[in-house]
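Reading a protein record of the kind used here takes only a little practice. The record below shows the convention in full.

——
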Amino acid sequence: MYALVDGNNFYVSCERVFRPSLEGRPVVVLSNNDGCAIARSNEAKALGIKMGAPWFQIRHMEQTDGLVALSANFVLYGDMSDRMMSLAAGLGPIQEIYSIDESFIGLQGVRGDLTKRSRAIRERIDRWVGIPCGIGIGHTKTLAKLANHIAKSAERKPGSYPIELAQVCNLTTLPAQDLDDVLAATQVEEVWGVGRRIAAQLHEGGIHTVLDLARMDPATVRRRWSVVLERTVRELQGMQCIDLQDAPAPKKEIACTRSFGTAITELPQLIEAVSEFASRAAEKARKQGSLASQVMVFAHTSPFRPGPRMHRSVVVPLRRPTSDTALLVQAASMGIRQVFQPGYQLSKAGVMLLDLVPGSVLQGELDLEEVAGRDRSKLMTSVDALNGRYGKGTVHIGSTGASNKARTWGMKQLRRTPQYTTRWEDVPIARA
């Protein structure tokens, strides 16, 4: 069996831990450059605010409905996630951290009342970290994901499901008829892996609920749709098809892209930005033990702003695969010089590392002494350790600029709250 522990409205919940005055108020967290809503409180959802809603379209709700909008504080969210996941791991012997707010737990061999145990873990997370969460339990990962949705819906929308399924929903303990009733009350688009397009096709075929989908013949599903949907159907029928992953598979490509807070028109600023992106991508490559064989760099104007349009990219091949920040920044800078053209207001740029190979594979060449002389892996490890301890950008390549505050191209985050748990100067002080 599996459990899925999922933080409720995670980004908003993290903000509410340190600002209790936000409880009961409609709150949204905005994306990079305060562009659109990427997290919503239940109160914001009740106002009809959709995920991804552009800020300029909902901004009037600040005055009309008391909406509170905050810039994303990803450093805070990452630290709060680590705290939550460390407690969620106590539910079972195996854990797969699926996303910043979701964690699958393998329950094989766990004895006793799993529902009671899950409620105790949920209460501990709420009390020790301050993050409310829902827990779903099922015989497969797909059923656990579905149970988590039911647990949250039963709490958020009383009457949609039996109240005893709120907060913690254990599908494995439900009698057969009760389980069918719950599946029949859930729309098919709520199933993990059923996207909007597939859901529309299922509705056209008369498949409207999860119970309808679970009763389909897997072979028919495979012939009409795909082996992926067949696997989903089998999982809904209780057949395990998706295993837990102790660690995510290495990425085949690594990208770091950003929209600029202010449009860039000059090459030196663009080189600073691309150097920063290449440095971040290099750190990600080292973290998963990969080397890049090529570097792709791009820049483009905004499709929504007036003026001439431009979208250009170039791929820079490397002499040998590397994760050395200096070499990748050099390649990215070389590429962006080819891409840049004066007279354009660039709104976004990015770097992508391509053709990744395992770092353990030494590429045989005739000039091995030269390769050894250029090996700066220990230096890169030290740089990563320093940046991990003292914050990103503490040690950086000179071409990224001397100071973060002087970067006019940096992201707009005018509404960001303090980094309460990771910066001494932002730690809240309690006074009697």
Summary: DSSP finds 16 helices and 13 strands in the chain. The longest strand covers residues 290-301. Residues 127 and 196 are 37 Å apart (CA to CA). Residues 366-373 have pLDDT under 50 and may be disordered.
